[in-house]
Amino acid sequence: MVSSTIAGAEYGLTLAWALAAGVLVKFAVTEGVARWQLVTGATLVEGWRDHLPRVASLAFFVYFIAWSFFVSAALVAASALAPAAVMPAVPLPAWVILHAVAACALVYFGRYEQLLRVMKWFIVLMFASLLATVLLIVFRSGADWSAAGNRSPVSAPYVLSLIGGIGGTVTLLSYGYWMREQGWNGRARLPSARVDLTISFALAFVFASAMMFLSSQIQWTGQILDEGPRLSLLLADRIGAEIGPLGRALFLVGFWGAAYSSVVGVYHGVPFLFDDLIHTWRRQPPTGQRGLAYRGWALYLTAAAVSGVLIQRPVWLVFAYTVVGALFFPFVIATLLWLNNSRLMPVGLRSGAVLNLVLGAALVLYAYLAVTVL
Predict the structure, then answer these.
(1) Do residues 302 and 100 lie in contact, with contact meaning Cβ atoms separated by under 8 Å?
(2) Residue 336 contacts residue 175 (beta carbons within 8 Å)
(3) Is the dihedral of CA 121, 323, 162, 95 positive or negative?
């Protein structure tokens, strides 16, 4: 949501193609992760261990430690923006700590079935609130389509951030562990995974597009990245000026629901990845949600979010996290292209021309953006 807000404020709706590209790439990557796991019975982390030099897994582990700090601090800070806007008397750090501790407690003591129930409510909350806000803007005050064009020259880091932000980055690897928790095993489940992912990423595109549209309706001044916690408040105030207090409240509820659902998803899924990394390296079976590795990483994510309070530019932190996360993607794409088209996969279950084309084009895009940024 924050990446889409920045993109809409700076470029109107002209970067909607980047949203579509991000959704397409993220679908191809997550489908590749699901394909590998369902067909081979091994997680992607196990595939890296068995079929890549060991230094590759070690390098990813080092990267994963830093990335986990960024993602936790960024998403928790973003989720705290909405209640801070509603009750400014309570300082933002207090909201950050409250959100981090609550998410940690949910995954530390809860189970996968409880996560599903919580996430369903968050999805209803965020979609109903944000889409209602968009409809009120369109039908009560009218949309300003003149704001659809660029307000700034297109910047490669923004494009990278937008593609990296929509649908997640490293967090996409959590899908394999959620399939395992759901009891999805074997190649017969691959069509179910495709349908699941198609619906998920279609909804992600609709949601991010709605956020970009709302942001494009505001006359921003100054540098967006310098707005800090006021970014969501300014957007909410503009909506309130257009359609009244109800619109402002609806937007803030939707913003909070989307942001905090991301926090809960990360706090639940990412520790599975750490658990897998640790035990795969030792060639031991992972211990799961009740194990020391899983719970220890949930506590690390909480500590990262609390320490991130010291950084006084939370929106900049979100932007930095999405860029850093996007830089990891070429590694995942390259390994999926190799593993899912190798002799390790049955001929009829390899990725196929369309998915390979999408992943190959994504590699070219990332290479171009990297050269442009440098």
Answers:
(1) yes
(2) no
(3) positive
Q: What's the fold here for domain 2-373?
A: Amino acid/polyamine transporter I (1.20.1740)
Helix axes 292-307, 92-109, angle to 10 degrees: 170
Q: What is the pTM of this model?
A: 0.86
Distance CA 19, CA 24 (A): 9
Contact 273, 169 (CB under 8 A): no
Q: pLDDT tens digit string along 109-160?
A: 988 888 888 988 998 999 999 888 888 888 876 666 665 666 667 777 677 7
